[in-house]
Amino acid sequence: MESHVKVSNKAGKSPLWWHLIPIDALSVVPIVRSEEASDSHIDLLVPRFRGGCLGWLQRRLPAERQFERLVLDARGSTIWRALGSEVSIEHLIMLYCQAHPEDVADAEARVLRFLAAMETESFVRMQKLDERP
Question: Where are the domains of the chain?
Fold first, then answer.
């Protein structure tokens, strides 16, 4: 499956660089923490204040208020669980297809849109897979 990432971010522009790389040569690294919820969904723990000069405010919040919870649905949780190991986006799509056979027809588009949204919000970052001999 020689495919490239073709998605748009909020502004309608293509992401900076990773849309030019074949999906079998890219991996995704989570940036925010996550927790397994009791209903088998995943909660992303997003810092309330991110970036620049607001970091000092984040550290002064009580522990229970430092993070907002973003609850992923079953499809998003399937993808997020696979991010723990260094796998290609192509492999993520295959894992998604195994978990959600009803979505096989548009699995690639769904996974790429999810990853693009996560990357736009700085929840994940894209990186090239290590080229090992």
Answer: 21-127
